[in-house]
Write a structure and sequence with these properties.
By secondary structure, this protein is an all-alpha fold. Helices cover 80% and strands 0% of the residues. It has 18 helices and no strands. The N and C termini lie close together (8 Å). The C terminus is likely disordered.
Length: 469
């Protein structure tokens, strides 16, 4: 067997992963600046906006299944040079994602009181959150449209366009936060409503920049609207069959995370504030992970779609380990600079102590957690959307939720014990996911050329670690 071409592999990973990671880090930086700019309004305001972000995370879980399914088709059709397949799958992805966007926008703008009552029992936090949600809900369709466009661009190896959109979006958000939160340059001081308005304007700028750059670069699929919706019932059924496990995964995990956030939202106000700040810093780690996730989806999915199954197998094994190593370095950096970050985001006293504890627990688990996510994304891009889904859902509902609910609601354990229970399943899942990775059973092409190559796939359906090099 030929020696694995590490130099070319790392170059391909960097071309995709670095712009995506930078884009997500920019978004995280924008969230951190939001929190810092809201910090003078007090821990209650920071906690309220943090809980609103958890509602956005539930929306993320509902539409991310379509992103994962869409990228499966985008990458494999891109590898097979099937233009019609890309256009059809993008049209179906866009239709499904916008349905989710409109649903959550209506909930945020018309039923904000109900939403906040679900996440916390603190009236002061509920009141602030309602004022924020009623405005920020208008950003949801724009944010999801930008996400759909970015997924298509990344799968077709145009990763710089979403990065430029993120730069403009974050800059817009910071600028209008400065204007509207405290009323600078003669503008009205709107407080938390000003932060929500800035988010809406930033989302609009993101969509406009991505669309404009897509048109200037003459991207063959992004704005080809007439060809996006030339799909029939059979196309939709094939699409949904592949997406269904991913949708179930993201939706059920989203519901599980909502239950976890409900438990955390019924702790002390200091714990709620610490959680809000932690979620912002968690985005720093997830930003790094997103780069590897997209690289795995594109580099592995493209090879599977093109029928290069041995190459896909070898790439997948290495990108997961590379992901874990880089995430570990990112966690160490975050721990090294945690003091000024937590202080700048209004944490002090008990809330600061809890924030430090949450970061320490998370950093101990993050590398394994992100390796599990990266493996799941790899399986999905290769056509196996079921294995990782079954594992993640099973462990969430059989292990994580019972532990969190028991410690948080029944035993009234210390907050950090409750928080640590969120990660009890990760080491076990990592072992099972690694066994599946080395088996090669996750390679399930959706293209004709990929299926034709499957019969000649040289990796036996059993573990052969000695073939790693």
């Amino acid at each position: 067997m030929h020696r694995f071409a590490w130099k070319n592999f790392l170059k391909n990973v960097a071309v995709i992963a670095v712009p995506v990671a930078l884009q997500n880090l920019l978004t995280t930086t924008g969230s951190m600046v939001d929190t810092m700019m809201l910090a003078p309004l007090g821990e209650t305001t920071v906690g309220a906006v943090g809980l609103c972000a958890q509602f956005s995370s539930l929306m993320f879980s509902c539409y991310w299944g379509f992103v994962g399914g869409g990228m499966l088709f985008f990458a494999q059709y891109w590898g097979a040079k099937d233009d019609d397949g890309i256009n059809r799958s993008y049209g179906m992805t866009l239709a499904c994602m916008m349905t989710v966007a409109i649903t959550f926008a209506l909930l945020a703008t018309l039923a904000s009181e109900t939403v906040m009552r679900v996440y916390t029992d603190k009236p002061a936090i509920q009141e602030i959150g309602v004022r924020y949600l009623r405005i920020v809900g208008f950003a949801y369709p724009l944010q999801i449209l930008a996400m759909a466009m970015s997924a298509l661009l990344r799968s077709t190896q145009r990763v710089k366009i979403p990065l430029f959109g993120a730069i403009c979006s974050v800059s817009t958000n910071i600028f209008f936060n400065y204007l509207f939160i405290y009323g600078n340059w003669g503008m009205p001081g709107l407080g938390v409503r000003g932060a929500a308005l800035a988010t809406v304007l930033a989302a609009a700028v993101n969509v406009l920049v991505i669309a404009l750059l897509g048109k200037i670069s003459r991207h063959p699929y992004l704005l080809n609207i007439r060809r996006h919706f030339r799909w029939n019932r059979m196309d939709a059924m094939a699409y949904l069959r592949k997406c269904f496990p991913i949708i179930c995964n993201e939706l059920l995990i989203g519901v599980g995370n909502m239950v976890i956030n409900m438990v955390l939202g019924r702790q002390s106000e200091q714990a709620i504030a610490a959680t809000a700040v932690f979620r912002t810093l968690e985005g720093f780690i997830i930003g790094f992970f997103a780069g590897f996730s997209n690289a795995a989806s594109v580099l592995v999915g493209t090879e599977v779609g093109a029928g290069h199954l041995e190459s896909a197998y070898q790439r997948a094994k290495r990108i997961v380990l590379l992901c874990g190593g880089c995430i570990l370095l990112a966690c160490l950096f975050l721990l090294a600079v945690h003091r000024p970050l937590l202080t700048a985001m209004s944490l002090s006293g008990e809330s600061y102590r809890l924030g430090v504890g949450m970061l320490s627990i998370y950093c101990a688990a993050a590398a394994i957690r992100m390796c599990n996510w990266a493996q799941n994304d790899t399986y999905r891009s290769a056509g196996d959307a079921a294995y990782g889904t079954i594992l993640e859902i099973s462990f969430m509902y059989a292990m994580v939720l019972p532990c969190v609910c028991a410690t948080g609601l029944l035993l009234h354990a210390p907050f950090l014990v409750v928080f640590a229970c969120c990660y009890v399943d990760e080491p076990i899942r990592f072992i099972l996911m690694q066994r599946h990775m080395y088996s090669g059973r996750w390679i399930k092409p959706v293209t004709d050329v990929g299926r034709a190559a499957l019969a000649e796939f040289p990796i036996p359906r059993k573990h052969k670690r000695q073939r790693a090099e």
